[in-house]
Amino acid sequence: MDPLVPRYGGGSLADVVPSLLAGLGVPGMVDVLGISGSSRVCVLLVDGLGWRLLREYSSDAPFLASLVGSPITAGFPSTTASSLAALGTGLPTGEHGLVGYSFEDGAEVLNALRWTRYGVPEHVDLRSVLVPEEVQPRRTAFEAASDAGVAVRLVLPREQKDSGLSRAALRGGRFQAVLGFGDLVARVAEAMRSEDRVLCYAYHGDLDALGHVYGTGSDPWRWQLRFVDRLAAALADGLPHGGALVVTADHGMVPADDRVDFDTDAGLQDGVRVLGGEPRIRHVYTSDADGVRGRWTERLGDRAWVASRAEAVAAGWFGPRVADYVLPRIGDLVVAAKGSLALVRSTVEPNATTFVGHHGSLTEEEQHIPVLVAT
Fold it and tell me: Do 250 and 262 fall into the same domain?
């Protein structure tokens, strides 16, 4: 089984917004996905809506299943922080630099989703220590759109306003806080009629949450997929003349019932200075990379891809280029799970350890996500 390396520049989540902005006349943007054409576009990102899951449960999502579309790749790691950065910046991981759910950056280990210190029980806000605009210094695609006169609107849960991840990945748009499905539909409709050229970005996260807790295909997850389908249909019904709705996702999800607990496995701990990432993809920062690699390879066998930093970069996992400031954030070893493996941490990540569903790796189930267009 070979890893599914993301198709950066020709079929990845990082290509969605630049492709749409090409049709909005933003300089330097190219429609590599063939999805441009409308001057008013809403991008709805449904967290956790993998392509294979949508195909398997199409009876629960008849509207989405009826739309023309095809799979693209999420990017690596196939996790929310990295994927939202790819969407907002239009850049592969190696250039935007948010290399996972958690990673080492200087003296800190950052939980990039919450922008807090990883691995400690107390909440330590790192926005003043690891300034989001410095951790991710590249101009976003949203900023480029705003500079070109496009009205950029962000219709997002209120807790995402001024969050570290929003500041790093989504800056450049006007934020509109929402509380639920009702005002999400209303605010998108308002945004889409606000100007002649509009890019609206909306986000829904509950499908991912239920997939983690109950598993994909469970009754709660399937009911949520039905609600998401109705949400997408409502957004499409509210489009202005000539408007378009583009539905995509940040990753798929797999059931992970093959669990290895780093926090209770002395052999895996030996030589590891810091462990980042999440259960399906681990950044392993070591004091003895060769020794750690040997022990991890022996312990995990063919249940994971174990690569050095140099090998992962050369293989293009993080994109065709990795910026100098990004390189040290990648683990000395990068371990990506195959099959149903989850490299859990029962002490440091007690909640995630209990999850039924996980994502982050280089399998088709996690990498393939939809791009669906309604007009």
Answer: no
